[in-house]
Amino acid sequence: MRRFFIRQLVAFAYLLESAPRYHRVKRFFNDLLNNDDFRYKKYFDLFMIFVILSSVSILVIDVHKHVAYWLDFYDLYIVTWIFIIEYILRLWVHSDMHKVIITHYEESEFFEKPFSFWKVFKQIAQEKWAYISSPAAIIDLIAILPSYREIRVLRVFVLFRAFKMLRYSRSLLQFFDILRSKKIELYTLFILLSFFTLVASIMIYVFEGNGNNPDIKNMYDAIYWALVTITTVGYGDITPVTTEGRAVAMLVILTGIGAISFLTSIIVSAFSEKLPEIKETRVMNQIAKKRELNLICGYGKIGQLVAKKFKEANRPFLVIESDRQKVEKAEMDGHDALFADATKSSTLLKLKLGKNVRSVICVTHDDIINVFITINARSLCKDVEIIARCSEKSVAKKLRLAGANHIILPEEIAGMLGSVYIGQPVAFEALQAIITQRRTARIDEVEVKLGSFFDGAKVGDFDFYANKLILLALLKRFEGSGKESHFVVFNPPDDTRLKVGDILVIMGYSVSIADFKARMEQSVRFKKQ
């Protein structure tokens, strides 16, 4: 019978291990309960906060006046079962029992030892008890008790339902994390205040508890007075009447003022130390909601210009900078900025490089750092577009080998513009007008989309001249070596056939380009309808 039970238990454990649906369901509930990055968790937290507040309100009202039947039913059954189900789910996802069974079974088979059901049960119980005995789980369990109205004394535990909200409020959790970082200082202050309170209680009881003060009848009254006085609350219901008692009161007041000042400095310093981390969390939460994100690594002159252009174009971007002053400058300019090192893989992994990031723009002042960022980004994602800045051609070769798609040489570009100005000043003026978008002249690119009027058409089918546009080049899409790419055709012939994914490089006034893009989007929507 024992062997049959063990065989069935092990078979069931292997069945769970090989069941994708079981793992998918368990991962979903684990993310829902514990993963702050899970997209549905915020809705679950809001729902639980509503349940807790409504339950607490019902129980508080019911102390003096019995609530309506449907509210009683809601609190007794719906709320209670929600809490019970949540507690069971948290207990379930805390550990994997089937993995413990499989591990012990495989060890027993390998070492040719008998399978010990007691050891398996003991390890599973220890893992589950680690959760059951945790403060959060104890609060969850106690929060269920007020529902049993037959035991009236259990209503005092209604407060634990309010404590339960700590699990669902990130701001409250951050506050307690900040205080936890100063636990040694706070513990020292608590011990010191407890000592002074005890000494002051004994002294006031000795001086005034012998009949001199009718308000101090026992040691409890003395402790109450000392605690109220040292916290500078001073209700005034108990006041010293003897000279010695008043002297003790003055000492206690001065001690309380010093203790409050010390406590304030501890909390302020804790918040000052954790403020960058809180800002980083806020930025990460905002960035996690964005798609097609552009990372600007470095906030020098070029980084500032790139950020300005992205903001004007309403494109999502994030500035990553390892200089705290530059991060503050980026924030003052109204940009999302992160104080981090982009050469570290952990930074890019936090930003979900392969999922949310469209491009990485390396524009730090140091060429070597740009090379390291390029290597880091390319090693983590093969498809992300990387644009890197460098000052020397020798470094440009290294950047290409590292995986940069485009390389910017500011000094070389400045030299080329200087030569154009000297030899062809009129052409320079036109080029400068395009680059700076002066008089609204600019160059833009438009991708041929599925269902648009360009899909399958020829270049000559559209009169660019009549629409105040100039077609400079065409980037034809092709797939080679299993990878999509483009080749450039300058001044393409009218009979060039266009297809989805091709990119038109056009020049014209902003209003003409905007009208052209709007007409293309309208044709796509019309085709879908």
Annotation keywords:
alpha/beta; four-stranded antiparallel β-sheet; 529 residues; Rossmann fold; Helix Hairpins; 4 domains; six-stranded parallel β-sheet; single chain
Explain the overall architecture:
By secondary structure, the chain is of the alpha/beta class. Helices cover 60% and strands 12% of the residues. It has 4 domains: 2-168, no CATH class; 183-275, Helix Hairpins (Orthogonal Bundle); 290-408, Rossmann fold; 441-528, Regulator of K+ conductance, C-terminal domain (Alpha-Beta Plaits, 2-Layer Sandwich), CATH 3.30.70.1450. The strands form 2 sheets. It has a 6-stranded parallel sheet with strand order 3-2-1-4-5-6, sandwiched between helices. It has a 4-stranded antiparallel sheet with strand order 7-10-8-9. Strand 1 (293-297), helix 13 (301-312) and strand 2 (317-321) form a beta-alpha-beta unit.
At a glance:
With 529 residues, this protein is α/β, with parallel strands linked by helices. The chain has helices at 2-17, 20-34, 41-61, 69-93, 97-110, 117-132, 135-142, 158-163, 170-180, 183-208, 219-230, 243-288, 301-312, 324-332, 345-350, 353-356, 367-380, 393-402, 410-423, 425-435, 510-528; strands at residues 293-297, 317-321, 337-339, 357-362, 385-389, 406-408, 441-447, 469-480, 483-490, 503-509. β5 (385-389), α18 and β6 form a beta-alpha-beta unit.
